[in-house]
Design a protein that fits this description.
The protein is 45% helix and 17% strand. The strands form three sheets. It has an eight-stranded mixed β-sheet with strand order 5-2-1-6-7-8-12-13, with helices on both faces. A four-stranded mixed β-sheet has the order 4-3-10-9. Helix 8 packs across helix 13 and helix 9 crosses helix 12. The protein is α/β, with parallel strands linked by helices. It is built from 14 helices and 14 strands.
């Protein structure tokens, strides 16, 4: 199989680089400064066992590849807000033997949140979800850092909306040769919603900086408790912290990397690169949406969604709001709901 990584940023670059290192065919899809850097100097992957440069085929869309191969696997690793544009470009791409990518090829949604795969199912027939546990950073064009060891990450795989199949098992076998654990599970959503709860802190980090110290940890606990209340009201199951720890153990331990950029979550990275958008609408915004659908107030997640989007839109410096100010605004938002 050939892996076409649509969105060769932090997650896509780490997955693509490790697959290439394991001897698999990989094509990277990027745009802007990342496209230029990958074309010019290759993908530089910084991991605990060293820095490796992979000079892989790089394209900015399907036209550069021509007719796709019947054994191609599309890995969608763009941020959720960029999903529709990516699918619109790749869905109509012709495949050898007839038909299009949307009708014939497997599409793995290696994204945060739960909405990307739902968007994909409108266009693609064979959609698979990935619960991404892969600490990776992309701040400088051409360079991706992934500090996990001994495994680079754990990627739970499942069919969308449900089920498993032989395609997933073949993909999982390849990933496990490339320094990942890739469990194929019939209940992927349980893992994805648990990851969603963890990702609610991304906006906190983007707005106020690293989640360190008791005050920050307590605030994140409040934000996640609001998310748990919403999922419970919606009847949505999610794996417990104990189940997650039992699966992960010490398999993905973060190690310091020399000369690697300071690592942060996806939203912090987007603000640092000045992309103008963040994932907040599909992380904290997912809790906001479910809260409105099921009559559960979500003032903290609504506030974080608003602030993260404002920081991105106005190109504010990541982490520039004092935590005390965020907590004050949160207390006011909760009080307004209770009044």
């Amino acid at each position: 199989m050939r892996y076409i990584i649509i969105g060769a940023g932090a997650v896509g670059g780490a997955v693509g680089g490790r697959l290439a290192q394991a001897g698999f065919e990989v094509v990277l899809v990027a745009r802007g400064a990342q496209y230029a850097a990958l074309k010019d100097g290759g993908l530089r992957l910084r991991v605990p066992d060293g820095e490796f440069t992979y000079r892989l085929p790089v394209v900015d869309g399907p036209a550069e590849l021509g007719t796709l191969r019947a054994d191609d696997v599309l890995v969608l690793a763009v941020k959720t807000q960029d999903t529709e544009a990516a699918l619109a470009a790749w869905g109509p791409a012709p495949v050898e033997g007839g038909g299009t990518a949307a009708g014939r090829l497997p599409l793995l949604c290696a994204q945060n949140g739960v909405e990307g795969q739902r968007i994909a199912l409108r266009r693609f027939r064979h959609v698979y979800g990935v619960c991404v546990w892969l600490p990776a950073t992309y701040v400088v064009p051409g360079v991706v850092s992934a500090a996990g060891s001994p495994l680079t990450g754990i990627l739970h795989l499942g069919g969308y909306p449900r089920g498993t199949d032989e395609t997933l098992r073949l993909i999982a076998a390849d990933l496990e040769k490339a320094r990942f654990e890739a469990p194929v599970v019939p209940d992927l959503a349980r893992w994805q919603y648990a990851k969603l709860l963890a990702n609610l802190a991304n906006a906190v980090e983007a707005v106020t900086g690293p989640v360190e110290g008791e005050a920050a940890l307590q605030f994140v606990k409040r934000v996640r408790a609001e998310g748990v209340a919403v999922l419970d009201a919606a009847g949505i199951a999610h794996t417990s912290a104990e189940e997650q720890h039992a699966r992960r153990g010490d398999k993905v331990t973060l190690l310091p990397l020399d000369d690697a950029p300071r690592g942060g979550g996806s939203s912090w990275q987007s603000l640092t690169r000045g992309t103008g958008t963040v994932e907040a609408d599909y992380l904290n915004g997912e809790i906001t949406l479910l809260g409105r659908l099921h009559g559960v107030p979500t003032p903290l997640n609504e506030l974080l969604q608003h602030l993260a989007n404002t920081f991105a839109r106005e190109h504010r410096e990541a982490g520039s709001m004092p935590l005390a100010e965020l907590v004050r605004l949160a207390d006011e938002a909760e009080a307004a709901v209770a009044a």
